[in-house]
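Q: Study each token:
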Amino acid sequence: QVQLVESGGGLVQAGGSLRLSCAASGRTFSNYAMGWFRQAPEKEREFVAAVSRSGGETSYADSVKGRFTISRDNAKNTVALQMNSLKPEDTAVYYCAAAFAMGDYYRYYENVAPYKYWGQGTQVTVSS
């Protein structure tokens, strides 16, 4: 089991910044590729960003590319999402997720299916 707890959400004006953090516990954090997803009301959960076990390989949804940055600290068992230049359309519940990736140190995942463990989510609201 991997437990994931997100923090850092809140209300921000358009153009502002937020930093989400996800703390992991329970299993060896460095064995898991990590991802951030979001879900707005009445919409499906969508991919935001992902990072490999090494932390050196990352991927972003086109809608956030150039504005968001994902990073991880394997020594502290945390993954973060720095969100800059926020837009009202970024409003959603943001989820941290972990995908077991023992066989590949450099792989990240953009689809929901590989992610077995999920946090409870943190609300991000961007006002116009």
In short: Residues 6 and 38 are 12 Å apart (CA to CA).
